Amino acid sequence: MAEKDYRPMWKDLGLNLEGHDQLLNVLGQAYKDIYMTQEDRPKGMQYLDFVISEAHGLRIEELMETKKKGNKVIGTFCVYVPEELILAVGGTCVGLCAGAEIGIDEAEKVLPRNTCALIKSFMGFKLAGLCPYIQASDLVVGETTCDGKKKAYEILNDYKETYVIEIPQMKTERDRTLWRGEVIQFKEKVEQLTGRKITAKNLKEGIKIANDKRRALQRLSALRKATPSPISGLDALLVNQIAFYDDPHRFTKAVNDLCVELEDRIQKGIGVAKNGTPRILLSGSPMALPNWKIPFIIETSGAVVVAEESCVGERSTRDLVDEKGKTLDEMIDAIVDRYFKIDCACFTPNVERKNHILDLAREFKTDGVIHYSIQFCTPYTVEAYKVEKVLQEKGIPFLKIETDYGMEDMGQLKTRIEAFLEMVRG
Amino acid sequence: MKTAGIDIGSRTIKLVVVENGEIIYSTLTDTTHDPLEQCEKLMEQTSFDRILATGYGRHFFETHFDVLTVTEIKAFALGAKAIFPGCRTILDIGGQDTKVIALDEKGTVSKFEMNDRCAAGTGMFLEVIAKTLGYDLDEFGKEALKAKDNIQINSMCTVFAQSEVTSLLAKRQKREDIARGVHIAILNRTLSMLKRISTEPDIIFAGGVAKNPCLKHLLKDYIGHEVKVPLDPQMVGAYGAAMIAQELNR
Question: Within 10 A of A209 (CB to CB), how many other CB atoms are there?
Fold first, then answer.
């Protein structure tokens, strides 16, 4: 690991240095315990290990470099933010810290205690001064995917400019019109922020960069259909998490390289788990970096996660933007259509999601589905009931878990997951 | 071949030795602050050829003695099925958790649910409230059974319920009526879990709390058919683990 001293940069960014040191220590240890203890990891994961080790160092330095050149950094929390528009004008889109139980005391000064862990986490990271990404961002983009986030952004805006995109709740033509208006308004916001016009030429490039990244992730996902799985669920999740942080060109290449290695493994019959290891589809709430809790328990209980039906996973990579558009309008429409397909649980009735889960369960030859929802995440927690029903009809074993980022229920969860796996094995 | 099952629970550790499907030895001790030492003591008092661990402490036992483990869900399922072959539903209320397990016709687990991280409505809850009312645990259920009225207890959180009970005592309410109210509160919580998973007979009630006569009585009343309690309801998990260990030998 590079031993460069980033402290002056962190200080300039206004981070709380002491707290940040502690955070890096804890995360470093967690990564060692969870990731480096895995056996038979693909070599291609070394790049991801490096990115993680430099997530708060080199990557932030790169962001500061691009900012010096007059480019903008835009921080986001959701797969609904049309990244293409940011990329078109040379901007960088980064996911913001929201996956660890950090700064909870600070967060609970402004948020109710019964708030989902993800929301509490991003507020905590900001208020405790521990997320270099939000500090480096020129703008934060929020979205109205749930009441908790929607209202929390009003508060976050007091500390950092937060632009909120309205997400419709249904998928009628009227909703599409609303959504199209939101995409156009966001385009104008990006143009105003950067002082650069979005044109057919640069948007075409933006669409290509984002699609290439998704294509690489789709390729990775498809390789996990192999038995035995050539990569652990933890590693594949990490790749999907890093997708929100890394330079898209470099990342896409690294993922494609990893896929070449995995294709070779599959050909040789090399996998991370023995044949007969239960294959699990993990479905539900987003797992923001470094939230590895549930896949870690699953994979240390003798199963392998083969797909994530999650915003950090299939939901963000399933669809591409149609690249046939020639005019700016056609491209905007293609973006509108692509994002409008996302099957977030904030939509009603959201039948698409249930169908996608069934498709994934079949295509990935899964032995069972574990539904994970963050406690107090109403959309996913409630939708779990309908998910269970459709899976039950097909005779697919199902386990519902509701938890937060804390570690005090690890023992309970381990018992439940182990018992589920015993049930799946029969 | 003599096989043992050890069930390391939050309050007690249970050890059962089985030979040819019959229990030949069973014992129980408190978990205390040093569960490992307690396990060693239990094992010294008997002999067996193989042991399988279950319960919340199974993983430290696994690491220390290099033995196989099974979850308490599977152990209780097998144990209950061995005792009552017609078993389709198991309710286990232990020291700090409650679980409901549904079995299919063949006796395999088809669905289960455990309480989350909170000990509301479990043995620990009963202990705390019994103490607040000045009962020992054996008296508690018997006295509640004698009560004429129920007093509604609104809180299922151990801490809140304790203060609710204290304030009821301050209002000079009869303690057996409060005791019954506490049992009804646990009953309601347990019933909602049963309704989500299964209420198909035979329903087996196991775990330390199954020794409570009032809860058994209330369950029967509300479900509408008999609830079967094994002679030694605390040993079901250890027995199940010992039976699984028998299977492993074949």
Answer: 16
